[in-house]
Amino acid sequence: MAGMIAGLEFAILRVLVNSPNKRKAHAEAVSELTTNRLSVYLRCLNQLETAGVQTISSQALAEQFHQNAAQIRKDLAYFGEFGVRGVGYYVKDLKLHLRQILGLDRKLKVVVLGAGNLGLALADYPGFGREGFEIVAMFDVDASKIGDRSRSGVPIHDIRELRKVARREHIDIGVIAVPAESAQPVLDQVVAAGVTAILNFSPGALSVPPGVKLKSVDLTVSLESLSFYLAQGGDGAE
Question: pTM for the whole thing?
Answer without folding.
Answer: 0.78
